Amino acid sequence: MSDKRDIEGVSTYEGPAGGWGALGAVAKALSGQMAIGRESLALRRMNQPEGFDCPGCAWPDPKHTSSFEFCENGAKAVSWEATGKRVRPEFFAANPVSSLWQLSDYALEGLGRLTHPLAYDAATDTYVAIEWDEAMRRIGAALNALPHPDAAEFYTSGRASNEAAFLYQVFVREFGSNNFPDCSNMCHEATSVGLPQSIGVGKGTVTLEDFDHCDALFCIGHNPGTNHPRMLATLREVSKRGVPIVAINPLPERGLERFTSPQDPVEMVAGRATPLASTYYKIKCGGDTAMLKGMMKWLLELDASDLSHGGKGLLDRAFIAEHTVGVEALIADLQATSWDAITAKSGLSRDEIIHLAEIYAKAERVIICYGMGITQHSHGTQNVHQLANLLLLRGNMGKPGAGICPLRGHSNVQGNRTVGITEKPDDNLVQGIEKAFGFTFPKKHGHDAVAAIRAIRDGQSKALICLGGNLAVAMSDPDATFAAMRKLDLAVHIATKLNRSHLILAKQSFILPCLGRTELDLQATGAQSVTVEDSMSMVHASEGSLEPASEHLRSEPWIVAHMAKATLPNTRVDWDGLVANYDRIREKIEVVYPAFANYNEQIRQPGGFRLFIGASERKWLTPDGKAHFLIGRGLDEDPLLNTEHLTLTTIRSHDQYNTTIYSLNDRYRGITGRRDVVFINAADLATYGLRHGDRIDVEVVGPTANRDDGQVRAVRGFTAVEYPIAQGTVAMYYPEGNGLVSLDSHDEQSGTPCYKSIPVALKASGARAA
Ligand SMILES: Nc1nc2c(c(=O)[nH]1)N[C@H]1C(S)=C(S)[C@@H](COP(=O)(O)OP(=O)(O)OC[C@H]3O[C@@H](n4cnc5c(=O)[nH]c(N)nc54)[C@H](O)[C@@H]3O)O[C@H]1N2
Ligand SMILES: Nc1nc2c(c(=O)[nH]1)N[C@H]1C(S)=C(S)[C@@H](COP(=O)(O)OP(=O)(O)OC[C@H]3O[C@@H](n4cnc5c(=O)[nH]c(N)nc54)[C@H](O)[C@@H]3O)O[C@H]1N2
Ligand SMILES: [Mo]
Question: Is Transport found in the keyword set (predicted)?
């Protein structure tokens, strides 16, 4: 370790995840944002059988939710939505868009809830209040003025309910487009593309019960302490059973190391914590395929040795023979992959990888959980294939206590996909829509998120409708993305809070304020509930109870239906009837998707119901009915990864929700009041002749080094923080690092941007920090 200088806002956090620190953080979040009285009511009704679904993450609810399950980041997400602050038309009148642009993203959202529908007025450079009817009329006219329906892009962020998302896609299909960029394209697209090829379904195969039966658990490339905090309670149970938990991550994440449950008075009072990961290996960013191949290579050795000693081997030969194809090619590929390549790419030693293989081989039932550390690479889909390969070799799919568990991001991103938010419609969808509504639409593929921004950049698409989210800031290459979005004829944002995307002006721009999950949704037939699907394919109802933040808010289904009516004079859909009673929307979903049989009855059961996942029952919905071992490319073919340069990964802080920044702190990583930091290993600092606290520039190297204008992609003047991160890997926060990711830099199979494998070099940027 070098001699560490003191840097403002940088220290070391010694505590566990959870515990008193978490309680304190919630108290602070609540006092800053919430209206007295609203919050206690809201938090008690979160994730209850009859309450609303937490907008924080897609981790499922425990089987018998009887008491409020405490979660620091869930509480923050709720308090952020249920805030007492409002941003009203008077505020917009006094603050032209050009001045709002100067505010930070943090300040923009911090202004509070939007209260009125707004239209941009160029003469005064302000957003002004507009009646709903007038807004819809103008939006419908602008959509109809486009040269063709494919000149519009319809974005979805994964908070929308099944009901809103379904109506949205019906509207857009009837309008005549399949352009559905969505947040999932930037998130788990590698899962949605890779898993169906391997096991016939693009979703996880496990349920929460499986965690009670696994005898090894691998957590690869995700950070549950921050992003899925309710998972910590599950990890704690698994750890208390004495089951090995393996964490694979370039950073030492506190939420994978140890946890004090705020629900456990003894742990809280005694200051005790439960250790989580029993093995923690710091992998080099992007090295997961190499590590997984190494594990499988050693598994083959163990298998051969066991066979030669008269054992029955360590591969599940009966399963492989009955259920899979392609194992020979996988074995040949593993034999051809050298240990030198494996250790160089993964940054792990052969012994470490052998250790992992032994933990895996010893266990009868293994679950692998994974997140963005696996998917956001140019080889993201290949990573997913390798996870499936490893599990299939020992039959760890479709039996109790075993399977694959992608940790979804937004609370209903998985449900949005299930009910039709996809740019690649299939025959079932085309026929289902025809059966339900009596119209057909073209089956050709539309645009995903990257393709949508390119089409806007190239002038092919002239309208952008956003059902939530903050596309401009979430997307790679903000310079190119912002410039593209300024060329639009029409921009419409359905949102709860103001963000930067809303300030990127088109010829006509609208902000349509909607109800949040926590709020009462009253329609003609009374209070409505919506439904959502979690990471484990459980579908359940969510009903808000708070008084809406303003009387002018409308629900997302209402807004979509009225936009459709204003755009489609000859529509075949009874939009008013559907919105009057969301049961009718669910009846239509059931017609299009038979998996939702008895939808309305089923969601009235406490806890809801699970959708059919073939792979959970060893039914492989692939073209040949088998699970597939897939080998993909070799280790040296990823253009963004080579061992000569550093690889930058972009990560979430503890106090952010994607582009929503709750505060500038990142408690578990010891960062307070700032986000302009780059985490670097001591040895890498030395190699670059830098010291902890230096102001540095991070420059992209390799094939995507230059921007369209020829300048080097770089962030400048950030502070180097010496950190126990894997050597060869550096990390900074998202979205601060998005300028380093070219629009062209994405997984070739799934289009997922490479937010986690950016080849970079570091340089001192002049003056040293005080
Ligand atoms: N509070 C809160 N909750 C959230 C969100 C939020 O922003 N805030 N976002 C939601 C959304 S949309 C999503 S998608 C999820 C995201 O949840 P995560 O998948 O946990 O997201 P990230 O913070 O991007 O972190 C990924 C983890 O992968 C590690 N990592 C980075 N590169 C690599 C690599 O190459 N290999 C391996 N093995 N690990 C790597 C990082 O160190 C980090 O710990 O969380 C959801 N929940
Ligand atoms: N560098 C880098 N970039 C990334 C990532 C990364 O790890 N690194 N992660 C990617 C991932 S995983 C994702 S999912 C995307 C996220 O991309 P998005 O989903 O587009 O972004 P969010 O920040 O979640 O969107 C926040 C906005 O949603 C609106 N909102 C909140 N609640 C509601 C609601 O109930 N209804 C409606 N209509 N609007 C609401 C608010 O106006 C808020 O400003 O970012 C991606 N970008
Ligand atoms: Mo995500």
Answer: no
Q: In what order do the strands lie in the sheet with 530-533?
A: 530-533, 538-542, 609-610
Residue 490 maps to which CATH number? 3.40.50.740
**Do 41 and 158 sit in the same domain of this protein?**
no
Tell whether ligand 1 has an atom less than 6 A from the beta carbon of residue 658: yes
653 conformational bin, left if phi > 0, alpha if psi -120 to 50, beta if neither: beta
**Exposure on the CB side of residue 343, measured as CA atoms within 13 A:** 10
Using a 6 Å cutoff on CB, does residue 239 contact ligand 1?
no
Number of domains in the chain: 4
DSSP state of 6: P
Could you tell which of 227, 416, 665 is best to mutate to test the pocket of ligand 1, judged by most ligand atoms within 8 Å of the CB? 227
**Cβ proximity of 354 and 296 under 8 Å:** no
Per-residue pLDDT of 27-85, as tens digits, reads 666 556 544 445 555 666 666 666 788 877 788 877 544 444 567 777 778 888 888 89
Q: With respect to residue 121, please indicate whether it lies within any of the assigned structural domains.
A: no
Probe target for ligand 2 pocket from 496, 661, 675, with the most ligand atoms within 8 Å of CB: 496
DSSP reduced 3-state for 614: helix
Environment of ion ligand 3 (residues, CB < 5 A)? 187, 409
φ/ψ region of 532 (left if φ > 0, alpha if ψ in -120 to 50, else beta) reads beta
Mean pLDDT is lowest, of 110-124, 159-173, 307-321, 656-670, for: 656-670
Give the predicted TM-score (pTM) of the model: 0.95
Give 560's pLDDT tier (boundaries 50, 70, 90): very high
Q: For residue 194, which of 45, 469, 383, 445 has the smallest C-alpha distance?
A: 383
Query: Which CATH number does the domain housing residue 727 bear?
Result: 2.40.40.20
- The pLDDT score that the predictor gives to residue 411 is 87
Centre of ligand 3 to C-alpha 187, Å, is 4
> Which positions ≥6 away from 369 have C-beta within 8 Å?
217, 218, 219, 220, 222, 231, 405, 406, 407
User: Is residue 357 domain-shared with residue 442, that is, in the same domain?
Assistant: no
Domain enclosing residue 560, as ranges: 136-186+418-529+553-605
Backbone angles phi, psi at 196, to 5 degrees: -60, -35
